Amino acid sequence: MRRLLVARLWQSLIVVSIVTTISFFVIRSAPGDPFSYENQNVTPAIRDHWRAQFGYDRPLPEQFARYVVSAAHGQFGYSFQMQEPVSTALAQAIPRTLLLTGVSLTLSFALGLVIGVVQAVRRDSWFDRTSSSVLLFFYSLPDFWGALMTLLIFAYWWPILPAGNIVDATLHDYMSGWAAFVDRLRHLVLPALSLTLLTMAGVSRFQRAAMLEVLPSDFIRTARAKGLPEHEIIWRHALRTALTPMITMLGLMLPALLGGALFIEKVFSWPGMGQLAAKAIDARDYDLVTATVVVGSVMVIIGNVIADLLHVVVDPRIRE
Amino acid sequence: MNSESGARLVLRRLVHHRSARWGLIVIAALVLAALVGPLLSAYSCNEQLDIVKLANARPSWSHPFGTDQYSRDVLTRVLCGARVSLAVATLAVLLSMTLGAAYGLVAGYVGGRVDSAMMRILDGFLSIPRVLLLIAVLTLWHPVPIGGLIVLLGATGWFGVSRLVRAETMSAKQIDYVAAARALGASDLRILWRHLLPNVISPVIVAATLAVGNVIALEAGLSYLGVGAQAPTASWGSIFFDGIDLYANWWVALFPGIAIVATVLAFNVLGDALRDVLDPRQVHLARPLPEEVMTETSLSL
């Protein structure tokens, strides 16, 4: 287990450096730079001064070397737009995105798992067909449109929940502990609900297929022959085996989940990584853009390592 | 297997597959609507009818989908957008499937160190959030013409498929006829093209069908953010970007969205059906019924 973890972490480090290199050079090779925005009051001399000050006049390889050094110091460059090291800007946004994606991921796996299992057990029943159709519909919704419709329904046509932001912008600071918590929760419901519905659809489709593969197996028949109660056969024996492909899927789903979260953040003005990235991209704040791409992939890679470790926990055959 | 009869067999099975039939009908209707719809419409794609009187008009007989904030007819724009969205998605998927198949075939066939190096690089690509990278590149190089959009969508969409193809290639190259072909002196290229590619093409077709739906949704999302198809070109996403004000004209958000969902749904249904039809292993495991029964009862939508 320990050796596996170390090996995986080494591999991840290599992957992260590949990603960092690619995104650094792709983003730096874009036309223009952070100081080429239009403003008559900024003279070319000032622009050149800034370029020299922040090292944008150096050759690309040297800029890259500087970036690597800065990353090694844990700063990941300097954000002009936020006027602070990139790491400080990220430290605020990352937890917010993790909150949104974490809640949605947990909910969608819990719900999707149960639905998928029940569908597989009652295959071709009324429940299976109806829920499969409904979930295929959710599966086919573009993230941003699903979010827009949730917003339209629950914040406009039937306005029971706030339309955006992470807390009430004016009143939150004056709320007592409990009211402030409820305020947070109310703002979380719609974005998390949208992301959960969209993700859950994929999970349950996959879980259904995985269970259908497992249910005809010999060990299930043996369990039945031993006279085990049906719920134990399904929820312990079959599900445990069917979880292995699900964990693989968890790893594969993370980039899509993060991508979906970007759109959801945009629609609900959720001030997380997506918003930060959008602002950074608009301002050509190169270091910050590079960092958001890298952090995004680091999240995916960490998720994959966790998935690998879960594999070992669930599937004793890999433990050797 | 003779590929001609193979293709016909698949087509026959598809037509008998009830959900596949629905998918095919919807897709055919969409292609038809995209081709002739804009010609039949009384308005042109970007025509601003009367910005004073007709901006944000509710759905009515003369404007079944309403008008947007520039008084453009939304139905016409949806029909025009169908051309752009379908064309962009199809071409992008064609590109990504070609890239993915080539990469996967080479990695799986050559094997060894080359393979593991290629796979590590692929791991790197796979871990980059595609949407974020696309938004960054499309914004920094703004404005990207539609051809560039297709290339970018294609160039970022092949990673998953190449893994699939690699796995299939590795098992296919163990089969005796590949050794036989080599013994007969066939070149690597010939083995790849004539013997391995036909063996791995089925999962690629399934993946491609599902990917078309996926890319349509992705393109719509990017255009919704204003970095996909550029104004005033109507694509299903750009209709939202430059026409929407959710609280003033919900119909501009609703109707193009329904078009997108119907299309993505149709491609997903067709993809699922193709998997049933093309992958005998899964059909055997997941649906252990005789074929006649199978085509009659497998109607999960």
Notable features of this structure?
heterodimer; A: 320 residues; mainly alpha; two-stranded antiparallel ribbon; 11 helices; B: 13 helices; 73% helix
What topology emerges from the helices and strands here?
The complex is a heterodimer of chains A (320) and B (301).
Chain A (H helix, E strand, L loop, with lengths): L1 H27 L15 H10 L6 H13 L5 E2 L4 E2 H36 L4 H14 L3 H15 L19 H38 L3 H8 L4 H38 L5 H10 L3 H29 L6
Helix pairs in contact in A: 1-11, 4-5, 4-7, 4-9, 4-11, 5-7, 6-7, 6-9, 7-9, 8-9, 9-11, 10-11
Chain B lengths: L2 H14 L1 H23 L33 H37 L1 H16 L2 H11 L5 H10 L3 H14 L3 H8 L4 H37 L13 H6 L6 H29 L1 H7 L4 H7 L4
Helix pairs in contact in B: 2-3, 2-11, 3-4, 3-6, 3-7, 3-9, 3-11, 7-9, 8-9, 9-11
Please describe what this structure looks like.
- Chain A has 320 residues and is mainly α.
- Chain A is 74% helix and 1% strand.
- Chain A has eleven helices and two strands.
- In chain A, strands 1-2 form a two-stranded antiparallel sheet.
- In chain A, helix 4 (86-121) runs antiparallel to helix 5.
- Chain B has 301 residues and is mostly helical.
- Chain B is 73% helix and 0% strand.
- Chain B contains 13 helices and no strands.
- Chain B has helices at 3-16, 18-40, 74-110, 112-127, 130-140, 146-155, 159-172, 176-183, 188-224, 238-243, 250-278, 280-286, 291-297.
- In chain B, helix 3 packs antiparallel against helix 4, helix 8 packs across helix 9 and helix 9 runs antiparallel to helix 11 (250-278).
- Mean pLDDT of chain B is 79; it is low at 282-301.
- At the A-B interface, helix 1, helix 5, helix 6, helix 7 and helix 9 of A face helix 4, helix 5, helix 9 and helix 11 of B.
